[in-house]
Structure formats: C-alpha cells, structure tokens
Design goal:
599 residues; alpha/beta; 8-stranded antiparallel beta sheet; 6-stranded antiparallel beta sheet; 36% helix; binds fructose -6-phosphate
Length: 599
C-alpha cells in the first residue's frame, strides 16, 4: 500500500525523503515521487517502478539549508501506475501526497472542472491539491483553506501538502490511513506512514488519531483538535518496529483490522467489487477453479472453496501443493489455476504454478509480496496488501488472504450472475463491518491470557468446526502447534465420531468453534459427544454452552464470515498466550522458516 514521508529541516532533503521511502518499500508500490521546496521554489520528480528509478532521475539534484519536502510510494487504486498518476500531484503552486481513497472525488472534480481547473491524472488524490487552491482564494489564512479542503473529503486519507505560498510549512491531516509525526532536538520534523523511516531520526513521535489536522513550520507544530501525545521512539530498530508489543506476532494480530481494510481499498465499493487485476478476456472460458497452496495459505484456500461453490457456483478443487506436484494431475483448460502464498517464494507452490503454466492453464497468484517469484510467473496477481509479516506464524497474511478470496468469490458471483445485486450488496455491507469487528475482537485478549495457563499440559488438542469453520479449526491447530510445540489437530466436527473420539478423556482438550450463524445445533451435538467422553471443552461461541469447561464468548454477528474473523483472532491470541507462557519465542519457533524455498 502507499507510503508517505515528509521532512522539515536543514539536511539534504532529497536523500532524506528517498531513504525514508526505502524504509516503506515493504508496503508495496508501483511508482514513487518527491516534491522539495527551498527558498520558495518547488521541484518535483516522479518515476514508475522501483526507487532506483527515482534515484536515477534525481541524481543531479541536491538541496542545501532549511527546507521542506514530501514523498510518496504509490500503489495504484484509481488509474494505472504511470508517471502522471504518481504522487506528488500539483496544482498551480502546491503539491500533495495522499494515502487512502477519496470516495467523493468525482463530485469534487466535476465542481472544479466547471470552474476551469484542468486535471492531469486519473487519480482521486489530485482533487485535494486543486480544492486547496480553490479554497485558498476564499481564505486569507492558508491553514483555514487546508481545513476547508479536508472538511470536504469523504473517505480515508493521510495527506501532506506543501505550497509555495507558505514556503516553510507542511500541512497534514489524517483520517483512516496511518500517519506518524516525529521531531528531534535539532528542530527537524518528520512524517511517515509507519515507524520504520523515523527510527534513528526522530527522538519523539506521535501516532495521529483520526480527525487530526495541523501544520508544521520551523520551530512550531500546530495541531487540532487535540494536542499530540509525543512518546519517545526507541533507537533500536527491532524494538521500535515492535511498536510496544512483546512480539511481532502480537503486533501483526493487532494490525489485522488495518490490513484487511487496506486489502479492500479500491476493490470493494458500495455495490460492486472491482479487481483491476482481472480483465474479461482473462476470465473467458473459465468454468472451474483449482487452488494450490501450503500451510496457512492452504487453509485460506480451503475456506474459499466453500464460498466459491456456495456463492459463485463454481466447482473448486483445493490441493496441498506438495501433493499436487507428484500425482500426475489432470488439468483442463477451462480451469483457472490459483496459487496462494504469503511469501511468493514457497518452492512447492511455485513448482505447482509452473506445472499449470506448462499445461496451458490461466494462472492467478494471490500473494503478499510483489515481485516475488510466484508473482513474476503468474499470468495475473492479486496482492493481499498485508504489509511485511515478520512473525513466522502467519496471522495478518491469512486474514488478508481470506478477505481477498471472499471478495473474489463475490466478483465471480456477479460476473456469473449467481447472486442477485441485492444479495451482493448485502454481502458487501457485512464485509464493510470486518475491519471494525476485527478491532473489537481484540477485547478478548485478556481472557485468552488468563485461560492460557490451563492449557499447558494434556495429551493434545482437537480444534473442531464445520463448514468454513473446519479450515479455521485446521488453522487454529496449526497456529498452536507451531509456536507452543503442543500436539494439536484440526478436524471437521462431524468426523470426530469416526475415529478420533477414541482419544477423548479429561486430558484431551477440545477447542470447539460454535458459530451461531452456521450449523450451530449440528456442531453442538458433536461437542456433546466429546463432553460425554469427558474431553475438556473450551467453546468459542456467542452463546454460552452448559457442557463447556471454559468458554470464550464472541460477539453476536449476523454473517458467518464475521464470526469467522472474530474466531480467527481468538485462536491466534490463545495460541500466542499459551506459547508465551511456555517460554517460547513465538516470532521464531524452532525448526520453522518464514519462507520455505526447499521442497
Ligand atoms: C504457518 C505458516 C506456513 C505457511 C506456508 C506457506 O503459520 O506460515 O504454514 O503458510 O509455509 O507459505 P506461503 O504462504 O509463504 O506460501
């Protein structure tokens, strides 16, 4: 996703900005740009592709002395990744960078065009700078003009704006997209989308809240409506990057509401799903889907198989990539071959993708890492936009994979006419609740911490669930086993009586996923069977269950996917707290690697 940096101070501004953008590269981008103002004149440079292209364009440019600058890495949402669409966007005398999406940009653009404003790009962002200059004609004070501009924007934004009419000032605003401001004893002020560019530069930082607006100028930072709470920034990159959390895994669990919302930007509209990555020609002739993946990504795939078949009425076949490779699979050209991978480097998944390409199938990668081997090889890619995931046990990457797959299901359902417009609109409404609900799900953290002490022994865990809660059970068991080293298995709840129930006794822990919106009574009967054999039951459900030894009450929801995402968070937190109590390094569990590039 887009990254923003800003700098006010005496250092060489271009390098300061580009070095900062380099720290944000992990967010993914397809073009980059900077605008630098010194002694009242602005220079701007943009380049498509990697930052080395921007380095090349700016190699003969340097600044000396006090000035301001803003920089941006863009991940295209409105308009293709071209130089014209790259940020900063300019008006007659001002430049802006923006992260997020301006939902009402069309109406603002129309209003400005009627006044004779000429637009250069296809982006939503460009309206901000022209609107600012429009407001500047009506306000003597430029900050008032900036406030009036921000006031008219609907949507998510982190904005930095510089103007020749206020040569030593950076205006800023945040709503829904991250922005951090930093300062130090030398009077320098820094802005960035995450901590990374500020480490070693700023001594103190403030994490802006939604609704924050202000400006920074030499020796002064003015903020409304509340003053900013500056806190010291750790100089050690690792500690600072953990942002106050004990482990990266914990931080990544807490980031899920944000990355899931990033995954939706530009793709989920009020009554439509858009994937610019997939054109009609690409989808022509496709009537079935095969998905290959490993580990957690395989669980995301399995989850989606229920959705694709139920909603898009497409036959779906999901395979573990290492199995697929050696079975002489039958591949037909009406099959869309999807691979799912966080890293984009998993050897088995990559090889499966090669086989599908050789067989002439159309291939789609759902991946978190742009330019990875899998992305480079696939015919089309949907990036999941989870940001860099450092914890070896995947959390936020899984959340974004499932989100993208749910979106893709609805995209196909619409194309194939298997759901009515109303039904799709309804799904999209529920989908729009996910980020907020994910934040609310974290309330259960304390409870998981307390409960964890009871689950440090025993001879094993069964995570059980039905339908999409079966792959979620598999994922819960995988999370627990990989970081706690306790034996855990995921099972379809209805399958326990066909064998595994023989293991039931008080030392067998059953983690029962009991959503109210899906097969509640059926799952309940299965849990009762285990309880009757004295298994210790932890039920995760919005409804109290008499026979449970422990329970984690989830919020009532009206849609299974909302229950799915909440239970996902519970499983992650529970696994993490058990592992922490056992004294394990949850970020780097024994025997595991983040990117499995061997067979
Ligand atoms: C588990 C985990 C692994 C990966 C698997 C595939 O927490 O992270 O199971 O999901 O190794 O990796 P990717 O998704 O990078 O292909």
């Amino acid at each position: 996703m887009c990254g923003i940096v800003g700098y006010l101070g005496k250092r060489e501004i271009k390098s300061q900005l580009i070095d900062g953008l380099r720290e944000l590269e992990y967010r993914g981008y397809d073009s980059a740009g900077i605008a630098v103002m010194q002694q009242g004149s602005i220079q701007s440079f943009k380049a498509v592709g990697k930052l080395t292209n921007l380095d090349e364009k700016t190699k003969n440019f340097q600044t000396k002395g006090q000035g301001v600058g803003i920089g941006h890495t863009r991940w295209a949402t409105h308009g293709k990744p071209t130089e014209l669409n790259a940020h900063p966007h300019m008006g007659e005398y001002s430049y802006v960078v923006h992260n997020g999406i301006i939902e009402n940009y069309r109406e603002i653009k129309e209003m400005l065009e009627n006044e004779g404003v000429h637009f250069l790009s296809q982006t939503d962002t460009e309206v901000i700078v022209h609107l600012f200059e429009h407001e500047a004609k009506r306000h003597d004070d430029l900050f008032e003009a900036f406030k009036a501009t921000i006031d008219r924007l609907d949507g998510a934004y982190a904005v930095l704006l510089v103007s020749q009419k206020a040569p030593d000032t950076i205006f800023f605003a945040r709503n829904g997209s991250p922005m951090i401001i930093g300062k130090n004893a030398h009077g320098e002020v820094f802005f960035a989308s995450s901590d990374a560019p500020l480490i070693g530069e700023a001594e103190e930082v403030a994490y802006m809240e939604d609704g924050t607006i202000g400006y920074a100028t030499s020796g002064k930072i003015h903020v409304e409506p509340e003053p900013l709470q500056f806190v010291p920034l750790a100089g050690d990159k690792m500690t600072a990057q953990k942002g106050g959390y004990r482990f990266f895994m914990e931080k990544e669990i807490y980031e899920q509401y944000q990355v899931v919302s990033d995954a939706m930007i530009g793709r989920v509209l009020d009554d439509d799903i858009v994937f610019e990555e997939l054109d009609d020609a690409f989808l022509e002739g496709i009537s079935r889907i095969k998905i290959c993946a490993c580990g957690t990504s395989y669980h995301a795939a399995l989850t989606s198989s229920y959705l694709f078949e139920r909603q898009a009425k497409m036959p779906v076949n999901v395979e573990i990539a290492s199995e697929f490779r050696y079975k002489d699979p039958l591949l037909t050209e009406d099959t869309l071959f999807i691979v799912i991978s966080q890293s984009g480097e998993t050897a088995d998944t990559l090889e499966a993708l090669k086989m599908a390409k050789e067989a002439g199938l159309k291939t789609l990668a759902i991946c978190n890492v742009d330019n990875s081997s899998i992305v480079r090889l696939a015919d089309a890619t949907i990036l999941t936009r989870a940001g860099i995931e450092k914890g070896v046990a995947s959390t936020k990457a899984f959340a974004t994979q499932v989100m993208v797959l749910w979106m893709l299901t609805l995209f196909f359902a619409k194309k194939r006419g298997t759901m009515s417009d109303d039904a799709i609109r309804n799904e999209l409404l529920y989908m729009s609740y996910v980020p907020k609900d994910l934040k609310k799900s974290l309330e259960v953290h304390e409870k998981c911490k307390r409960l964890s002490k009871r689950y440090l022994h025993g001879h094993g865990f069964f995570f059980i669930g039905r339908d999409i809660f079966y792959p979620l059970a598999l994922e819960g068991a995988l999370k627990l086993k990989e970081i706690s080293y306790l034996h855990a298995e995921g099972y379809p709840a209805g399958e326990m009586k066909h064998g595994p129930i023989a293991l039931a006794d008080a030392e067998l822990f059953t983690i029962a996923l009991m959503p109210k919106t899906m097969l509640y009574d059926k799952t309940k009967s299965n849990v009762e069977e285990l309880s009757a054999r004295d298994s210790t039951i932890l039920s995760i459900s919005p409804e109290m269950f008499d026979l449970a030894d422990d329970f984690i009450l989830t919020h009532p929801h009206k849609h299974p996917m909302l229950e799915f995402f909440e239970m996902m968070v519970v499983e992650q937190l529970l696994a993490m707290e058990i592992a922490i109590r056992m004294g394990n390094d949850v970020d780097m569990p024994r025997n595991l690697a983040k990117s499995v590039t061997v067979e």
